[in-house]
Each structure stands twice: as structure tokens, then as C-alpha cells.
Amino acid sequence: MSQAIRLGILGAGWPGRKHAEGAKASGGYKLAAVADLIPARRQEVMSILGTAREMDDAADVIRDKAVDAVCIALPNHLHVELACAALRAGKHVLIEKPPAINAREARRIAAAAEKSGKVVLYAFQRRFGPTEQAANAAIARGYTGEVYHARAAWLRTRGIPVGTGWFFRKQQSGGGAMIDIGVHLLDLAWWLMGKPKPISVFAATHSKFAAASPDPAAYDVDDSAFALLRFENGRSLELAASWALNQPPQQQGTTCRLFGERGCVDVYTPDGAVIHRQFNPQGQSQSTALKPPRLVGHAALMRHFRECILGKAKPLIGPADGVAIMEMIDAIYRSAETGKSVSL
Ligand SMILES: NC(=O)c1ccc[n+]([C@@H]2O[C@H](COP(=O)([O-])OP(=O)(O)OC[C@H]3O[C@@H](n4cnc5c(N)ncnc54)[C@H](O)[C@@H]3O)[C@@H](O)[C@H]2O)c1
Description:
The chain has helices spanning 14-26, 39-49, 58-63, 79-88, 103-116, 130-140, 170-173, 177-192, 297-309, 319-338, and strands spanning 5-10, 29-35, 53-55, 69-72, 92-95, 120-122, 147-155, 198-206, 224-231, 236-242, 253-260, 263-266, 274-277, 286-289, 342-343. The chain is of the alpha/beta class. It has two domains: 5-125 and 298-316, Rossmann fold (3-Layer(aba) Sandwich), CATH 3.40.50.720; 127-293 and 326-343, 2-Layer Sandwich (Dihydrodipicolinate Reductase, domain 2), CATH 3.30.360.10. Strands 14-13-12-11-7-10-9-8-15 form a nine-stranded mixed beta sheet. A six-stranded parallel beta sheet has the order 3-2-1-4-5-6, sandwiched between helices. The longest helix is centred in the C-terminal third of the chain and has 20 residues, at 319-338. The N and C termini lie far apart (41 Å). Nicotinamide-adenine-dinucleotide binds at residues 11-15, 35-38, 41, 57-58, 73-76, 78, 96-97, 123, 125, 163-164, 166.
């Protein structure tokens, strides 16, 4: 492989552009090809990372021998086929969240990764965020003791994604708020808890805001979803996600709190991640803001992808995590549909 990794970007919306920015900031990449059905979007990626071969169809980049690695930033239902084709063609793959539209598809990606020996990394960039990494370091050092419960939410008051029209069509997206934004907080909280084995899930979803979507007749997904996940050793996670909810806009945003035997970490505060420890009998504690690392976000994600390709690191969010996350998402939707707790 030449020194710079020859990168193909498949899908040039917001996430495709973020990967181009991340690759530029991390260094060690050359944009070889960009595919999108919208020419102006291809131009935007090239304005960030340099000129490249331009294609309409993402499948053409997979056939391009002068591409070492691809970022798949396409609608959810296209992840599985393109990821498997790229792996068969000997390319390393960075895949946007959610890993796929269900666990079956995530398992297909895992099998293709195993067969090819190439890197699969999922772009859950929150694991590379400043407050999130600071929280992880504190928990890993044992400052909270075992985290036995977490509360994670991403609640939007009004924020049904428009994109190019697929987000609210279940066949193309796999679901609504939970698979779209809940999945970020699920991945984050599960990772910060040390990736415990899930045992069961109980969930409810609601679909109340079709009229606020660009195509009410086609809208068939959840706009809010609430779940309780139980893990081995009695550990638990409350997870909530909404694209739309009748709450004041100042109440929207992300929450991720991890409750341990000796302390608690609050990931999203105006001061960044904060740890609360040394609780007295009245519940008062010492609160300390946690220091984030220097390289964060998409730059850190793309540097990590490069290190994995060069054999210097193992994917932080690899094929097995993709399967585990999609199994939890599937269980959330199954529980909501049946009204029953689902065992995993
Ligand atoms: N990590 C994050 O924070 C984050 C944020 C937004 C979206 N995403 C994920 O990124 C993916 C894309 O989302 P988006 O917001 O860019 O959606 P979007 O609808 O805005 O863009 C999708 C793009 O894919 C292109 N496209 C579709 N089929 C194609 C094909 N066969 N060949 C080439 N191009 C094709 C479209 O032209 C469009 O520009 C989804 O999986 C989404 O969940 C992740």
C-alpha cells in the first residue's frame, strides 16, 4: 500500500463531509474517489480533501482498484450490500451508524469482515468525543467503581431528519428516532459501562408526528422511543430518544449519566464531563470536571481508522460491536411491537 491511504467516500452528505474533514485533519489519506447521486455534494467533499474521480453510483468506487479504503455514508439500507462488496474487493471499510437496518445484516458484515481479513470500523464518533473520552478514562481508572446503572437520552423537541427522503421510511432506515439517534447514546452508554452482556429489553415506541414530516403518507417509524435494558449481574440502562416530543426546546439535548458504586459521571454538562465522588451521608459530593484529550471527534476517528488499516490498532467499534448494538436495537423494536420483555 502506498504511504497515503487512497480513500473512497460513498455518500457526500453531512457524514461524508465530516469524514473528509477528519481525514484531512488526521493526515495520511488521499481522496481517490467520491460517489454521490448529487454532483454538488461531491464537489463539497472535493473542496475539503482535494480533487478525485467522481462517480454517481457508489458501486463504481468498489470496483475501482486504485481505492484502498471506503467510508460508507449512505442511507442505512445500503450499508450491508456495499460493505460486503467492498470487503470482497479487498477494501477496508468505515461504516456510518447505524451498522445496518437489523442484526441479520450486521452479522453478514461481520462474516464478510472475517472472510476478507480487512478492517471494519463503525463511525460511532461519540466514542471519540472530548467529554466522552474523558468520561471513559475516569471510569476505566476505577474512579466510579462498577457502573451498575446508566441513563442515556437524546431528546429533540422538533427534529425529524429530512435528508434525501429515506429517514422516515422503515424499509430504508430500519426505524426512526431510536435507530437514528438513540443508537448513538446506546453505543456510548454500553461502551462506558464496559460493554456488558445484554439479558433483556423492555421498550415502548410512539409515532405521533407524521404530519411534521416531509411525506406524512410514507412516514412509518417511531418519533420517540423509551427502553430499559438489563445486563448481566443486574446492571441496567434507561435509554430514550426522540425526533419530536412536546417538551420545551430548552429541555432537548443529550444526557448520559453513569451511576457507580463509588461515584457518578455526567458526560454532558456545560463544563464537559464531570465526576461526582466522595458522597457524604446527606448526598453532597466533590465534583471535578474531567480533562479531555487533544485529538478528538472525526479527526481522531479517521486517525484510528488509519492505524487499524496499518495494523497498529484494533477497531474500537468493530464487527462484533456492530452485531451486539443491532441485536439490542432489534430487541427494543420487538419489545415495543409485542408489548413484552424480549430476552437476548
Ligand atoms: N455519525 C453521525 O452523526 C451521522 C449523522 C448523520 C447521518 N449519519 C448516517 O450517515 C448515513 C447517510 O446519512 P445522510 O444524513 O448523509 O443522508 P442523506 O439522505 O442526506 O444523504 C445520503 C446521500 O447518499 C447518496 N446516495 C444514495 N444512494 C447512492 C448511491 N447508490 N450511490 C451514491 N450515492 C448515493 C445521496 O445522493 C445522498 O447525497 C446514514 O446511515 C445516517 O444514519 C450519521
